[in-house]
Amino acid sequence: MIVFVSGGVRSGKSQAAEQLAEGLWLQRPGVERVGVKGTGAQQGDPSRSELTDGASRLCYLATAALGGGASAGDDERPDDEMCERIAHHRARRGDNWVTWEAPVDLLAAWRQIAPGDTVLLDCLTLWASQLMFASSLSEEEGLAMLQQLVTDARRRDIALVVVSNDINEDLPPTDALVRQYLAFLQTLHRDLAQRADRVIEVVAGCWIDWKTSNTVATTVSNGLRKC
């Protein structure tokens, strides 16, 4: 299952993607939900799960590296504001997640993902900018890297949820590099949307399904709702 989630800044897209990934993970064999509250749970919500041997893992592939997760070989570190946001996201997710940090080299982290795992990649926006402006990789190589992840996810029965920002709804930028970046990001979006089983846009906490597989059940929780 491949899911693409997009939305504006602070739209609730990351929280929606986390809930989608957790929902897919809980459907995997060997995962049993128990009623123990984690850091990010609301009152009365079970957020911890027990695993049997060989069960699927719930994995977070972070394109912003703070440290404390498994490193994928990139040394870039975010500023103080980004550090606070990363810490907030980690606290909300709770203890079920295994985190891998991959600011550019997604494949280095992806090699740690096992068949049957569930993976949330957050976010494509930051990864695209780091690939363009902080690496020697070309846009074509970046697109090929993302396509390889999607292809391998299907081949190895890995549920993959990818998050990105909607940042192309303003007037066209006058700066040539910004235009190039937006064009690259939209190329990634179009390719991923075509390959995904489900495409969701999050607006003010509402989920809008633009593409939905008939086999996918929509799970709504924590105040987020499908519009």
Q: Can you summarize the main beta sheet?
A: 9 strands, mixed
Q: What's the multimeric state?
A: single chain
Rg over CA atoms, rounded to whole Å, is 17 Å
* Spatial ordering of strands, largest sheet: 5-6-4-7-8-1-9-10-11
Question: What structural category arises from helix and sheet content?
Answer: alpha/beta
Distance between the termini: 22 Å
Could you list the spans in which at least 5 consecutive residues all have pLDDT below 50?
Answer: 35-47, 68-76, 215-224
State the share of residues found in helices, binned by percent: 25-40%
Q: How many E strands? A: 11
Mean pLDDT: 81
Give the ordered list of helices and strands: EHEEEEHEHEHHEHEEE
Strand content: 15-25%
The number of helical elements comes to 6
The coarse silhouette is globular
Protein model, in words:
The chain has a nine-stranded mixed beta sheet with strand order 5-6-4-7-8-1-9-10-11, sandwiched between helices. The two termini are 22 Å apart. It is 35% helix and 23% strand. Helix 4 packs across helix 6. The relative contact order is 0.20. It contains six helices and eleven strands. The chain has helices at 13-26, 80-93, 106-110, 124-133, 139-155, 176-195; strands spanning 2-7, 31-34, 48-51, 58-62, 70-71, 97-101, 118-122, 159-165, 198-203, 206-211, 225-226. It is globular and about 50 Å long. The protein is α/β, with parallel strands linked by helices and 227 residues long.
List the helices and strands and how they pair.
Layout: E1 2-7, H1 13-26, E2 31-34, E3 48-51, E4 58-62, E5 70-71, H2 80-93, E6 97-101, H3 106-110, E7 118-122, H4 124-133, H5 139-155, E8 159-165, H6 176-195, E9 198-203, E10 206-211, E11 225-226
Parallel strand pairs: 1-8, 1-9, 4-6, 4-7, 5-6, 7-8, 10-11
Antiparallel strand pairs: 2-3, 9-10
Helix pairs in contact: 4-6, 5-6
